[in-house]
Amino acid sequence: MKKTAVALAVMMLLTACSKPATYVINSSCAGFGLIKASRQDTAETLRQIWVHNRTYRAICSKEAENGRNP
């Protein structure tokens, strides 16, 4: 009897306190940005900077279109 009452109370508390789904905003653009190349960078470093900046633009331009801050 006690187990049933406890189970019923727990179920009532869990269902009564439910909220609408929480949406998580991808804040990846807040943590990284465009990198500027310098004259001292090697060819491989320049390639990596190019890939990084291309990835940043692909991700953050989508977030900017959706009304999120890049």
TrEMBL record:
UniProt signal peptide: 1-23
Keyword field: Signal
Superkingdom of source: Bacteria
Protein name: Lipoprotein
